[in-house]
Amino acid sequence: MGLARRLLVAAVLGTLARGDARLLAQVTRDTTRDTVRAQPDTSERWGAIDPGKGFTVATTDKGTLAISAYVLWRYLNQLPVVEFYTDHLGRRFQVKTRNDLQLHRILLSFLGWIYLPKLSYVVTGWTVNSTGQVALVGALTYDFSNAFKLSGGIGALPGTRSLLGSHPYWLGTDRFLADEYFRPGFTGGAWGEGEIARGLYYRAMVGNTISQLGLTAGQLTRYLATAASIWWMPTTGEFGPRGAFGDYEDHRKLATRFGTSYTHSRENRF
Q1: What is the pLDDT averaged over residues 220-233?
Q2: Do 154 and 238 fall within a single domain?
Q3: Per-residue DSSP letter, 54
Q4: For 107-135, how does the pLDDT look when each residue is reduced to its tens digit (9 = 90+)?
Q5: The dihedral formed by the CA atoms of 137, 138, 139 and 140, expressed in degrees to the nearest 10
Q6: Global pTM?
Q7: Residues 152, 270 within the same domain
Q8: Alpha carbons 183 and 158: distance in angstroms, whole number
Q9: Does residue 155 sit in the same domain as residue 253?
Q10: d(CA 256, CA 220)
Q11: Residue-wise pLDDT tens digits, 211-220
């Protein structure tokens, strides 16, 4: 055995002797090639990907941490270049048409549970670069039972279906004008949710305003916003991972979803 190989074996054995628990290796000798290699211990797995939750980067008896990223890049070109519109007073204006490339949206989420498996958290850095909007949002949730989970933080008022899990993970054809008009936004508040019967779900929330992003606490009024939604999925008991508008999960059985939503908020003109 050459000097370099002796030094390699000595270094590996020295590491084992020091008891570095996170870098345990099993030293084996390949007799056919006369080489020495280290095989990492795979008894503890980390870094696995969980669709919808991202990559797991920490799993301990005190909590877990997963990191998820969502990035949207787009090219937008409005044609024809010269267009005009007329407002309600009959005045004619030229439209400023766009032709630009944008790293439009980035969501970076950190999620898991802390201290108690029933106490979960999520913190999300949220940017809309096209409008210069940057926000840091998050929530804490305690899972009392399947019928009741209590959360507090920045959340979506459940006034339309798109704010019950699918926002903003849509295809372009899913961004319906009716939903854009009716849906409320995200605000600080508290909400409860759960499954009260087989396939029957609900979410109810009390929040500061219909949309708090971009507002300071001093701008808020004493009137609180309220919203609730209830839905029933009698056949398969689900409608895809996020309950989106379309069926992109290749269902082999009929998936159905019926529901209704309610929102009320008194708002200042701003």
Answers
A1: 95
A2: yes
A3: E
A4: 999 999 999 999 999 999 999 998 888 99
A5: -150
A6: 0.74
A7: yes
A8: 8
A9: yes
A10: 39
A11: 998 888 999 9
